[in-house]
Design brief:
The chain is mainly beta. It has one helix and eight strands. β4 and β5 form a beta hairpin.
């Protein structure tokens, strides 16, 4: 009986240690990503990527576009994409750590052919806890449905 309790304690400790490094706020699909020459070399500054257009096929929700966090940033970035006209959120990513990108993502719904004005919010968070918010960036862009 004591052996069974001892084994259960070791198993529980192993589960706890295994979960200790989990960061559920990070996007697990993100891959290492680097654009030559696009790196933040000043830890006091935040470098945000520019987004002008995002393309998607008509009646599809899967988008192949890199939402990335430049190497050298001292924060995680969460992307929130909204329709400019209505404010409807059409995509909200998990956080992307510096030097990584989400290269495919899903929109909340499909669209008909056309151009849709969007707002791309880049919300920034502490890399250690994923909860402490920093400054964020907002830019106007277009969702082009082909």
């Amino acid at each position: 009986m004591a052996l069974l309790a001892f084994l259960a304690a070791i198993f529980s400790a192993g589960l706890w240690l295994g979960q200790k490094d989990e960061k559920p706020y990070l996007d697990e699909t993100a891959i290492a990503y680097n654009i030559g020459g696009f790196e933040n070399k000043d830890p006091e500054q935040l470098l945000l990527p520019g987004i002008e257009e995002i393309h998607v096929a008509e009646n599809e929700t899967k988008v192949k576009y890199a939402l990335f966090n430049p190497k050298g940033n001292m924060c995680n970035i969460q992307y929130v994409i909204k329709l400019s006209d209505s404010g409807e959120t059409i995509c909200s990513s998990k956080q992307v750590r510096p030097g990584y990108a989400i290269t495919e993502f899903e929109l909340n719904r499909a669209f008909e052919k056309g151009e849709y004005p969007i707002i791309v919010e880049m919300r920034t968070y502490d890399t250690g806890d994923g909860e402490t918010k920093y400054n964020s960036g907002v830019m106007a862009a277009k969702l082009i449905v082909e």
